[in-house]
Design a protein that fits this description.
The protein is mainly α. The chain has helices spanning 17-51, 55-83, 85-105, 109-137, 143-159, 161-171, 176-179, 181-195, 211-234, 238-259, 274-303, 309-315, 317-337, 340-357, 366-394, 401-426, 437-464, 479-483.
C-alpha cells in the first residue's frame, strides 16, 4: 500500500479522512495499553499456576509495569515535546511490542517481571503521546470534538478488556494476553507513519531535561515497593531494610532536586493551590483503593470462589459499564454544581461498595453477594472521576493545564503501584497463599481498609475543593481504562 504524506500538524480537521486516521492511530495505540492493562488482572491466577508464583510474584507482575509507567510518565511527555511527539509515540509502540513478546514467551517469573518493566517504559511514551498527538494534530476549533471521539472509543476498548482477557486465558493461554498486542501494534505503526503529522514544542529544547528528578523518583518508588512486597516474604531482612531506606531517601531528595532545576518534571509551585493538592490527595486515595482492591478481589474470585478467568472478568464488567454510562452525566453535574459535592459523595458511595464486597466469601452467590457491591462501587467511581479531573484543571492556570493533568495522571499510577504493594501487607497477608481460608479473611480485611481510604478521599475533597469547573474543555478519555490497571485518563 502506498504511504500517504501526513497532513501538517495543527491543520487536521474533524470529520475528514485525515482526521479519522489520526483518531484511529491514537485510539489503537492507547487502546492497546488499555486492553493490556485490563486483561492482566484476570490472568494473574493462571500466571501464578504456570510460573509457580505466590502472592508476591503476582504483585510484581502488576507493579513492575506500574513502577516504570508512573515514574517515567512526565519524562515521556517532555521527551515527546522535545524530540517529536510522533517519533516518541513510535518508539513507545516498538518498546511496548518487544516487551509484549518477552512477556508472552517468558519462561520464568523473573523474565516476566523484567519484561513488564520494559512494557511500562513503552507505556510511559504511549500514554502522554496519544493525547499530545491528538491535540497537536487537530486545528484548535476541532480539538474538543476529536478528544471526545477519542475518549468514547478508548472507553469502548477498555470495556471489552476483562471479558476478552478472560476468554483468552480460558480458551488459549494467558500468554496470548500479551501476544495479542503484536498485530495491533503493527497496524498502529503503519497508520502513524502514513497519516499522522509530526509535531514538537520548539521551546522544549531550550532547557535541560530533568533526568536527575526522573532518576530520583524511579529509585525512590522502586526501593519502597521492593521493601513493601519483599517484606511480606522475607520480613525485615537487611536487603529489605536497605531498599526501604534508599527508597525513602530518594523520595525525600526528589523535591529538593525539583526546586533546584529550571525545568522540573513536577513544578512544586502547583501544590501551593489547596485545591490542586487536595484533588491529588483524593486521587491517591480513590485510585489506590481501587487498584489494591481489584488486584486482590479478582484473585479471590478465581482462587477462592472457583470463578474461571472469563467469569472473573465478566463479574467486574458492571463497573466498566457504569463508568461509561454515568461519567458524562457526572461531569455535567460538576459543571452545574461545582466538583465539590460529587467528589465528596462519590468516594463515600464507592467505599460502601468496597465494604459490601468485603462480605464475599466462598459460597456467596454472584447475584446476591458480588453484584450489589460491584454496582454500588461502580456508581461511586462514576460520580467521582470526571469531577475529579475537572477540579484539578480548575486549580491550575491555563498555561499549566498540560503539566497539571500530567501530574494528576502520574499520581493515579503511583497510587496503584503503592496500593498493590502495601494493601496485602496491611491486611496481614504475609506468607498466605491465595485460595485458603486465611487468604479469604485477609482479602475481606483489605477491602475494608480500601473502603476507609476511599472514604477519606471524599473527606479530603470536601475540605479542599472549592473552585468551579473551568470553561475550557477537559480531555476525558474512558475512565474504565484509567481505573482498570491504570491506563491514561487524560
Amino acid at each position: 500500500m502506498t504511504e500517504v504524506e501526513p497532513t501538517a500538524a495543527g491543520t487536521v480537521r474533524a470529520g475528514t479522512p485525515a482526521g479519522r486516521w489520526v483518531i484511529v492511530a491514537t485510539v489503537l495505540g492507547s487502546g492497546m495499553a488499555f486492553l493490556d492493562s485490563t486483561v492482566v488482572n484476570v490472568a494473574l491466577p493462571a500466571i501464578g499456576r504456570d510460573l509457580d508464583a505466590g502472592l508476591s510474584g503476582l504483585q510484581w507482575t502488576l507493579d513492575a509495569y506500574l513502577l516504570t509507567l508512573g515514574a517515567l510518565l512526565l519524562l515521556g511527555g517532555a521527551l515527546g515535546d522535545r524530540y517529536g511527539r510522533r517519533r516518541l509515540f513510535e518508539v513507545g509502540l516498538v518498546a511496548f511490542s518487544v516487551a509484549s513478546v518477552l512477556c508472552g514467551l517468558a519462561p520464568t517469573l523473573g523474565t516476566l517481571v523484567a519484561a513488564r518493566a520494559v512494557q511500562g517504559v513503552g507505556g510511559a511514551l504511549l500514554v502522554p503521546g496519544s493525547l499530545a498527538l491528538l491535540s497537536a494534530s487537530f486545528a484548535s476549533e476541532d480539538r474538543g470534538r476529536a478528544v471526545g471521539t477519542w475518549s468514547g472509543l478508548a472507553g469502548a476498548f477498555s470495556a471489552i478488556g476483562p471479558f476478552f482477557g478472560g476468554w483468552l486465558v480460558d480458551a488459549v493461554s494467558w500468554r496470548w494476553v500479551f501476544l495479542i498486542n503484536l498485530p495491533v501494534a503493527a497496524l498502529t505503526l503503519w497508520v502513524v507513519r502514513a497519516h499522522v503529522p509530526e509535531s514538537r514544542n520548539p521551546a522544549a529544547g531550550a532547557g535541560r531535561l530533568d533526568l536527575a528528578g526522573a532518576a530520583a523518583v524511579t529509585l525512590g518508588l522502586a526501593g519502597v515497593v521492593f521493601a513493601l512486597i519483599e517484606g511480606t516474604v522475607e520480613g525485615a531482612s537487611s536487603v529489605v531494610v536497605a531498599a526501604g531506606v534508599v527508597g525513602v531517601g530518594a523520595l525525600f531528595a526528589f523535591p529538593v532536586i525539583e526546586r533546584g532545576t529550571a525545568h522540573p518534571l513536577v513544578p512544586l509551585g502547583l501544590f501551593r493551590s489547596r485545591q490542586f493538592s487536595g484533588a491529588n490527595a483524593t486521587t491517591l486515595a480513590v485510585y489506590g483503593a481501587f487498584a489494591g482492591a481489584l488486584f486482590l478481589f479478582v484473585v479471590h474470585l478465581q482462587q477462592g470462589l472457583g470463578y474461571s478467568a472469563l467469569e472473573a472478568g465478566s463479574a467486574m464488567l458492571p463497573v466498566t459499564v457504569l463508568l461509561l454510562v454515568l461519567s458524562g452525566r457526572a461531569g455535567r453535574l460538576a459543571q452545574r454544581l461545582g466538583p465539590r459535592l460529587p467528589m465528596t459523595v462519590g468516594p463515600l458511595v464507592a467505599a460502601v461498595g468496597l465494604f459490601l464486597l468485603s462480605r464475599v466469601f466462598p459460597g456467596t452467590s454472584y447475584v446476591s453477594g458480588v453484584l450489589p457491591g460491584v454496582v454500588v462501587f461502580g456508581a461511586g467511581l462514576a460520580l467521582t472521576v470526571a469531577p475529579l479531573t475537572a477540579a484539578v484543571m480548575a486549580a491550575v492556570e491555563e498555561r499549566h493545564l498540560g503539566v497539571g493533568s500530567g501530574v494528576n495522571n502520574a499520581v493515579a499510577r503511583v497510587a496503584g503501584l503503592l496500593s498493590v504493594a502495601l494493601l496485602p501487607l496491611a491486611a496481614g497477608l504475609r506468607g498466605i497463599e491465595p485460595g485458603t481460608a486465611a487468604f479469604a479473611a485477609g482479602v475481606s480485611d483489605a477491602l475494608r481498609i480500601a473502603a476507609v481510604a476511599c472514604a477519606l478521599g471524599g473527606v479530603v475533597a470536601n475540605v479542599s475543593v472549592r473552585k468551579a469547573v473551568p470553561v475550557h474543555p477537559v480531555p476525558q478519555p474512558g475512565m474504565a481504562a484509567a481505573c482498570n490497571d491504570h491506563a491514561v485518563r487524560r
